[in-house]
Design goal:
It is built from 14 helices and 18 strands. The chain is globular, with a radius of gyration of 23 Å. The longest helix is centred in the last third of the chain and has 35 residues. It is of the alpha/beta class. The two termini are 42 Å apart. 44% of the residues are buried.
């Protein structure tokens, strides 16, 4: 680009920053980065791009704060991906975990160090949005996005993406990050495909002080009666977050598990303040993460841990990467350079989060076929408990544990071999998952 073009771009940027109303409207202005969705992935992307000095617009369809169905567990990788100085609005600090097998064989393991913290998502998400705003991002709430366009009359040139809002307004950007949840419109534009869909049910149950005190500092994880299912109790002061999750397909059975779970916990007599459900979606490994100048992150990209369905750490980490690479895409002068930067983003995600997801998928297969063995191992084999504690604290990852511990690797390899043999025996010709 010529020096005259540089001067014109710089002058346009200064004029836009001097007219906040016009910039927010996006009618005569091009943003460097537009982020769709103000959850952890979107806020992290907006923060990363704004910290790099770019002009960033963060769009959210809801008004904040808003409720989000989520256990709210902040494990080590989540904590490490937060903006510097971010103060977690913790409702409890967890030092103990009670494990049970469909309500039986309960055993509690404890740690002198905190395993992880618990937050309410409305407060947590609002705090992340505030950090993005402090970094320089402009926030617009109550703004739904209908679609994005990279060609056509709404797009003035090949360096620009048009974000069309539900009310017909068009916002222009040099790069777009889609972080609009598991039913993402931006994910649809990119072509994200999902291979694992699970149904989660959750209730926020206010309880008396005597009940709350019994749960303080301790959570419950119950390996459930349905293949791959589990339930949880997360204490948050005077409220218990209680939920279950299992593969989508038998909602009635999942609801029965939820009702039975609450009943045997002795909580059936308490009226939930909120009862909700949601679907979690896990991507196909070869599914795209970009299209043109548009990237996806977090749930919109189907990024979550397949076994536990933990998504906050994946959202924070992929969001930060998306924000950083969106800055590079916004600077790209042609489609070839933009494509190169988008591929670099995909490589960064797959080399880190993708490897963790691959191991998580193998762990889910083990859990589905041998829940009793998993329960016995984690409650009765001290190294397994230590591994669980190290993963939740963030000193290692599930993928690192498999690489480091030969026994864990042998167990998963044996499972892979059995699955491959079953596949061959049924004529499917399938192969087990590969080593991470």
């Amino acid at each position: 680009m010529s020096s005259d073009d540089d001067v014109r771009d710089a002058s346009a940027g200064q004029a836009a920053q001097g007219d906040g109303d016009e910039a927010a409207g996006g009618t005569a202005d091009v943003w460097d980065v537009v982020v769709v969705g103000a959850g952890p992935a979107g806020s992290s992307a907006a923060y990363a791009a704004a910290t790099a000095g770019r002009r960033v617009l963060l769009l959210e369809k809801a008004e904040l704060p808003r409720y989000k169905t989520c256990g709210g567990g902040i494990i080590g990788p989540s904590r490490d991906a937060l903006p510097p100085g971010f103060v977690l609005p913790l409702k409890d600090r967890i030092h103990a975990v009670t494990f049970s097998l469909d309500g039986k064989l309960a055993r509690t393991r404890r740690s002198k160090q905190m395993l992880f913290g618990l937050v309410n998502r409305p407060e947590f998400d609002a705090g992340l949005v505030a950090e993005a705003e402090k970094a320089g991002a402009t926030i617009r709430t109550g703004t739904a996005v209908a679609r994005v366009e990279q060609h056509g009359a709404a797009v003035p040139d090949r360096r620009t993406v048009a974000v069309v809002l539900a009310d017909g307004e068009t916002v222009l950007a040099r790069a777009v990050v889609g972080a609009d949840g598991s039913a993402s419109r931006i994910g649809g534009h990119v072509g994200v495909e999902m291979e694992q869909v699970d149904l989660g049910l959750e209730a926020e149950i206010p309880v008396p002080e005597t009940v709350a005190e019994d749960w303080k500092g301790r959570i419950l994880i119950d390996w459930g009666p349905l293949p791959g299912s589990y339930g949880w109790v997360f204490p948050k002061g005077d409220t218990l977050t209680v939920g279950v999750i299992s593969a989508k397909g038998d909602g009635a059975a999942t609801k029965r598990y939820m009702d039975d779970f609450i009943a045997r916990l002795g909580l059936a007599g308490f009226e939930p303040a909120v009862s909700s459900g949601h679907l979690t979606r896990c991507r196909k490994p070869d599914s795209p993460l970009s299209r043109g100048r548009v990237l996806v992150a977090g749930d919109a990209a189907g990024l979550l841990e397949p076994w536990t369905r933990e998504g906050i750490s994946f959202a924070l980490r992929s969001g930060r990467l998306a924000g950083e690479w969106a800055v590079k895409i916004s600077e790209a002068q042609d489609a070839v350079d933009a494509r190169r930067q988008a591929l670099n983003y995909a490589f960064a995600v797959k080399a880190g989060l993708g490897v963790e997801m691959g191991v998580g998928k193998r762990m889910l297969s083990l859990f589905e076929s041998r829940p009793g063995m998993l329960h016995a191992t984690i409650t009765g084999f001290r190294p397994a408990w230590r591994a669980f504690a190290r993963i939740t604290r963030g000193s290692t990852t599930l993928a690192d544990m498999v690489r480091t511990y030969p026994l864990a690797r042998r167990v998963l390899n044996l499972l892979d071999a059995r699955q491959a043999a079953r596949g061959a025996g049924s004529g499917s010709g399938g192969q087990g998952p590969q080593e991470p």
